[in-house]
Amino acid sequence: MTVLNQPMTTTQKHSHADFYKLAVGVFFLTGVGFYTFFDNSSTPQIAFLIFATVVGGYMAMNIGANDVANNMGPAVGSKTMTLASAIVIAALFESSGALIAGGDVVNTIKKGIIEPSLIADTQIFLWIMLSALLGGALWVNIATAVGAPISTTHSIVGGVMGAGIASSGWEIVNWSTMAKISASWVISPLLGGLIAALFLYFIQDRIFHKEDTREAAQKVVPFLIAIMGFAFTTYLALKGVKKLVKFDFTTALAVGAVLSVVTYVISKPLITKAAKQLSNTKQDINKLFTIPLIFAVALLSFAHGANDVANAIGPLAAIYETLQSGLIVKKAPIPVWIMVIGALGIAIGLATYGPKLIKTVGSEITELDQARAWSIAISSAIVVIIASWLGLPVSSTHIAIGGIFGVGYLRYYLYQQYENEIEGVKAHHIKSINEKIVKWSQKREGLEDDNERLRLQNRITAKEQELKNMNGGQIKFTKKEVKKLAKIEKKQYVRHEMLIKIVAAWLVTVPVSAFISAMLYLALVWNFG
After folding, report:
1. 74-117, pLDDT tens digit by residue?
2. In this structure, are strands 105-107 and 331-333 parallel, antiparallel, or unpaired?
3. Can you tell me the distance from the alpha carbon of 299 to that of 89, in angstroms, rounded to the nearest whole number?
4. Helix, strand, or coil here: 331?
5. What is the model's pLDDT at position 247?
6. Which of 20, 32, 241, 459 is the most buried (most CB within 10 A)?
7. Which residues of the chain are modeled with pLDDT < 50?
8. What is the full DSSP assignment across 495-515?
9. Cα(366)–Cα(352) distance, rounded to whole angstroms?
């Protein structure tokens, strides 16, 4: 007899959640296809445009699911924001950045990695753009599924390169540009990690290692917020509001300097007032970084939406403009309806599939609190400023992940090392066994009852055997020691298996995306060209 109203198992709940996520995505992409048809019915090759638009929406969803986690993950991992509030704030600011400051013109050949003059005709150009967009989206989707945060910009770069090579041969690629992009794989995470570690070291030294942490925080935190005001104002001036106002580097620095002074004047009395309500503990002082961190991740999301929405809609805008004009264009205007698709796609992808990567970035690499998360956020802005000054291509994804690892490794060396703590528990265990053997041996000598002496000897023999087993790696810890080991495991400073997985994903992003796009190009041309 079937029992009704039984509670769902965990597997059933996951199945239902997966179904709803898929349904939302399918509904969005279906709506994108219908809108494209009704709004552009007179466009040549309308079926091609509809498919390209759906692929653009799919890429936007993948950007939301993967790339946005880099900004929001540390805030969620540090318990500054809940996952739900992070998704709402990220969706709002990513969409705002895309719509308000996403640019009205994009380069059709991302980063200038291939030479458009070597493309034979417009139809080949259309196939290249579509293959690059779909290939890049598929690879981001795969990376998201395995929990690896990657650069969506590099995915599109690989896609354009692969489809370009498949269409016109190796000579179409600008290899010097590709060399610069490859260099960013090293430069971005190293700079992000170094700067995040430096800020955290400064915070530890100037606040948390002082006897009166509250008094130290009242002096130092306003100064740090002023640096944040400078960094984010300059960052947004250079990268976030290019569509609205164009600043040269010197002007952006000047505007940032002015805003940093204003920020200091405003934040100083507020921090002093807030600090008086807190105790002198590290946990309480960390709360002073909560509001600055929320501002930081919101501004990072705005700048990310303004810049990286082009990864989804740039190739789509190129396809649309080429279909309208019949020409291969190096720069294409972005219609508002295409920009809206990009913004909505990012928000929907973030809300449905983003939580997985947010949790990975926020809690599966190293343990974060507000000060550590703030150090990571500020490093992202500063590295972009440095890169703009030096003319270096950097990835916001690589910067953020590098910042997290930088913080983790700093913690590893500042505090007692993970392996040493494990060895300490083992040493204590061995010492305890030896003490029991000595104690029981002395007690045995004073016993006259042979049965008692035999029982005690058996216990001594068992402990001696346990010592022998430990040399072979077999250790039987007490319950208390097991609990202590579990705590050490929980606060492991850097999870090296995550480092290996993420670096591997970074290294293969361009070649794998290129391969997928090349195969798609050949398949599309073979069947429809």
Report:
1. 999 999 999 899 999 988 998 888 888 776 666 766 667 888 88
2. antiparallel
3. 10
4. strand
5. 84
6. 32
7. 1-4, 490
8. -HHHHHHHHHHHHHHHHHHHH
9. 24
Q: What are phi and psi of 195, to 5 degrees?
A: -70, -40
Residue 486, classified by CB atoms within 10 Å of its CB into exposed (0-12), middle (13-18) or buried (19+), is: exposed
Separation between Cα atoms, residue 64 and residue 348, nearest integer Å: 7
CA–CA dist 292, 280 (Å, integer): 20
Give this prediction's pTM.
Answer: 0.81
Burial class (CB in 10 A: 0-12, 13-18, 19+), 396: buried
What b/e sequence results for 425-437 when a residue is b if at least 16 CB atoms lie within 10 Å of its CB, and e otherwise?
A: beeebeeebeeeb
Q: Where are the domains of the chain?
A: 17-415+493-528, 418-490
Q: Is 111 left (phi over 0), alpha (psi -120 to 50) or beta?
A: left
**Total residue count of the chain as it appears in this document:** 529
Question: In this structure, which amino acid lies at residue 182?
Answer: S
Q: Which two tokens stand for residue 470?
A: 């430990």
Residue whose pair of structure tokens reads 């992000």 in the numeric block: 192
> CA 131, 187, 372 angle in degrees (round to 5)?
105
Quote the tokens at residue 335. Answer: 């219609």
Place of tokens 């073979």: 526
CA-CA distance, 224 to 57, in Å (whole number)?
A: 39
pLDDT of residue 445: 76
- Report whether 163 contacts 127 (CB < 8 A): yes
